[in-house]
Amino acid sequence: MSRKREKGSCLCGGVVFEVAFPSRFCSHCHCSNCRKAHGAAFVTYLGVPEGRLKVLSGVRLLSAYTYGYGVGGKRVVSTRTFCRRCGSTVFFSSTRWPGETHVALACLDGEPDKEPAFHFYYDKRPSWSEVRDKLPKYGGPTGGKRLE
């Protein structure tokens, strides 16, 4: 039985990847690291299990920025992978979610298998960004506490 697959790419098209579905989740993240990495009010990610993401071309164009920070009293190491030529951040991985890669949904060329289901770190959003959809909103020190 074959799984549905979708291709994606960075802005310049130098990095091309393929995602095999099913994905684990699709959500919006409002944390300051995601906002700064993408230059946007929030970023939408598709969580892909290990082995279901394949870079088809442009591996030599990929660079990574790895950094550490604390979440809920624990040390976390995260990596943002981007195209050196155009600067598109395409992937995110973290020791917080081992065995999966978060793909920037805007880099997917086709449709995902899931629509965004919630907002993560919603209480960390900037004051000029309010989302009025009906999706559940989470926040707090770990980003995962349900907000009213």
User: Strands across the major sheet, in which order?
Assistant: 6-7-8-9-4-3-10
> What is the share of helical residues?
under 10%
Question: What string gives the helices and strands in order?
Answer: EEEHEEEEEEEEE
Distance between the termini: 42 Å
Rg over CA atoms, rounded to whole Å, is 15 Å
The number of helices is 1
By DSSP, the count of extended strands is: 12
Strand proportion, as a percent range, falls in 35-45%
**Which CATH class is shown?**
Mainly Beta
Number of domains: 1
Mean pLDDT: 95
Low-confidence region ranges: none
Description:
The protein is 5% helix and 43% strand. It has a seven-stranded mixed sheet with strand order 6-7-8-9-4-3-10. The protein has a three-stranded antiparallel sheet with strand order 1-2-5, with no helix packed on it. A two-stranded antiparallel ribbon has the order 11-12. The chain has a single domain (5-146), classed as Metal Binding Protein, Guanine Nucleotide Exchange Factor, Chain A, CATH 2.170.150.70. With 148 residues, the chain is mainly β. The protein is built from one helix and twelve strands, in the order βββαβββββββββ. The protein has one helix at 32-38; strands spanning 5-9, 16-20, 25-29, 43-49, 53-57, 62-71, 74-83, 89-94, 100-104, 119-120, 138-139, 145-146. The N and C termini lie far apart (42 Å).
